[in-house]
Each structure stands twice: as C-alpha cells, then as structure tokens.
Amino acid sequence: MAKGKPHLNVVFVGHVDHGKSTTVGRLLFDAGAVDEQTLRKLKEEAERLGKGGFEFAFVMDQLKEERERGVTIDLSHKKFDTPKFAFTIIDAPGHRDFIKNMITGASQADAAVLVVGSEGVQAQTKEHAFLCRTLGVQQLIVACNKMDLVKYDQAKFETLKKEITQLLKVSGWKDPEKNVQFVPIASYPGENVVKKSTNMAWYTGPTLLEALDKLNPPEKPTQLPLRLPLQDVYNITGIGVVPVGRVETGIMKVGDKVIVMPAREGKGVTGEVKTIEMHHEQLTEAEPGDNVGFNVRGINKQDVTRGDVLGKVDNPPTVATEFTAQIIVLNHPTVVTVGYTPVFHIHTAQVACQITEIVKKINPATGETLQEHPDFIKNGDAAVIKVKPMQPLVIEKQKDIPQLARFAVRDSGATVAAGMCIDLVKKA
Q: What pLDDT, on a 0 to 100 scale, did the predictor assign at position 2?
C-alpha cells in the first residue's frame, strides 16, 4: 500500500463569535480547497439573509438552520492539503449546548487551533483550552483573530498572548511559551491566514497555514499494549471466523498469542492470529489506525462479539467491576443522581452502568474541587463519579491507555455526558 502524506486531524475551537468558522472558511478558500464560484454563491446567500460578511463561515456551516441563526451546530469535516500534510478539519461548535460535539470532536483530533478574538479570553475560551487538554489533544496553535479591529496593534497582540499563556498553564498545557504557536490573524480580510499580512510587519512568525505545517505528525501509540476493540464478527466460508476492528494501540502480528475480553462471562478466550487483512490485502502486522479483518485459531463465532477487546495474552485488556471517572454533564433533562443507570458508549461497547457515588463536583476549567459528595449534578457540571457496569466491560485508565478510557453517556437517544476513566477495580 502506497503511503501518502501523513494525515492530521485538526479541530478548531474557541468562544462563539470569535471568528472560528470564518477562519476555517478563509483558510480553505485561500488554500484553494473551496473555489470562487462556491464562495460567490455563499456570499449572495449571506447577503440575502442579512448576514453580509458571513460567507466564509458558511463554507463550514452546511446546515440551513445554522445559516439562518449564524451559529455552528454540528461537526463538519473538510479536507485540504498543505505541502507537508493531508489535513481533515473538524470545525467544532462554540456554544455551551454544543459542547458534546466539541467533546466527541476533540477526542479524535491530533491538534487544535484555539481561535481567540481581539476582545480577549472569554468563558468558553477557558473551557475549550481545558477540554482539549483533558481529551488528549497533544498540540495547540492559538490564532489571535480580529487584529483588524485593534488596528493591527502589536502591543494588543502581546497582551493577548500573555493572557492566553497564563490560561493554558492553568489548564495543564506544559510550557506553552515553548510548545504553543501564537499567530496574529484577521480572518475576514484574510491577513496571515494563508497570505502574509502587510499590516503586521512587526510579526515575523508563520502564517496560520505555515503554523499548521510546523505541527508534528501524530505518533502512533505503537509502544502501548495491543488493544483492538471488535466492531463486527463474520463467518467467512473457507476462512472461518473473521473479527473486524480498528487497532487503537500497539501492534498485532501474525502468530501472536491473543486474548479477547470480556468474552465468555469475563473469562476471555484465547487463540493465535493466523491472518490479517486490510482492503483485501494480506498483512503480516497491523498498527494503530488500521481497520483490519483477521482470523484467530481457537476462536469461534459464538465466543466473541462487538464491544469485546483483543489484546495479547501477556497483557490482556482490563475488565473492570467498577471504575472512577471524570465526567462533564452536557444534556440531561433534569439532574443526575446516585442510582442513575444510563448506557455508556466506550470504544465499540455499549453497556448499562450505574452511578454509585458522586465523589465531588469540580471546576471544568481548572479541575479544582468545588463540592464534596453533592446530592446531584446538572448540565454544565464537571464531576468525579464512581460507576458500576451492569455486565463485564473493558475499560482502561486515562493515564495508561487513553484511547480506551474515554466514553460518552447516552440516554434515550441523546448524549447526556462525556468523560474518561481515571481509576478502576480490576475483575479478579
């Protein structure tokens, strides 16, 4: 298989109205990923809706309702190429009620661009900086937007940079002065997004596009133990049982002795990998990100199912009888109390789990404790809780294998909360 440019997922986050969608639209247009004709149509539509100046934002806001409200509701994905990378842009919404998308979006992003308007740090700027960190985004670019509104003043940019650096430190970003790129931009007039600005001669750093190209390709978590959540299990004539799934961490090789958990009431089933196939090609090994089908000697169709996780015999996937999690409540009709038993979606598993204790309520922007053992938690609250799965479940600690620690909590068709496992009790 020909390997092209390395692929990077980048999520754009930031407070509502700081120009996130406009920045993305401008970037795609100036980088040639959106043509003149499309932009002209969007411009006419923006003017017709009385939203002149919103044409760039409309590039990402494909939903009609969003155009009318001028607000980003769902995640939209756009691809574009730079000299170094093939990027997928995830434009995540800024509004509080859309944070669930931000959470599901950020969890698959390799890097984030935090867009901050020249009006400075706002509530959601803080929340997004913290969430990106918590959800495992490794690299960050800060785009200081709307420099045109402060007459491209260098002092204003330096003040903003200082303010954001401080915020990032509090949110747990290591050494932001060294590790985070700050780029002053004006995305509506198109300054420093793709084209160098003539109005900011004082700035000698990269444009936003160049900053994206300075990111590091994501390191595949090959050094972590093998974890492959099963998506489906097929019976194929002439081959036998073929489980299918995506390698999250580690490497799976032909000949490996593997175990699938929590198959057979949590005891697991073992076997040896006979073949691995991807896109109808035989492989000798599979690495993180590979979607593969494979055949294991010793494993029958009735033994394993979607939601089970494959690992190596010498480091089996962890089955938890209970776990401690940090969650943020996004969208619950009333309040969440002890005894609540929604469905937890973790990797490919969907398991009903009961909340057995609300340990403490925490500040979502800093992680500090606000209240010990509250009676309930509600929308917008972040908390540490204890959880008991109603059936055997594979989950790992965030600090060990973050790819298998994150989950969404759903109830009657809506995402109620999102979070990650920070501790667990292993099944004996």
A: 39
Listed in sequence order, the residues at least 6 apart from 410 whose beta carbon sits closer than 8 Å to its beta carbon are 342, 343, 345, 416
Does the pLDDT value for residue 28 go beyond 50? yes
Give me 279's structure tokens. 């896109």
pLDDT of residue 207: 95
Sequential DSSP letters for 295-345: EEET--GGG--TT-EEEETTBPPPEEEEEEEEEEE---SS-B-TT---EEE
Residue 207 CB contacts under 8 Å (≥ 6 apart), including other chains: 183, 185, 192, 193, 194, 195, 196
Pairwise CA distance, residues 305 & 128, whole Å: 36
Which listed CATH number (3.20.20.140, 3.30.43.10, 3.40.50.1370, 2.40.30.10) goes with 319-426?
Answer: 2.40.30.10
Residue 278, H or E segment: strand 269-278
Contacts of 87 (CB under 8 A, 6+ apart): 7, 8, 9, 10, 79, 80, 81, 212
CA angle 214, 220, 224 (to 5 degrees): 140
CATH topology of domain 7-213: Rossmann fold (3.40.50)
Helix (H), strand (E) at residue 264 = helix 263-266
pTM value surpassing 0.70: no
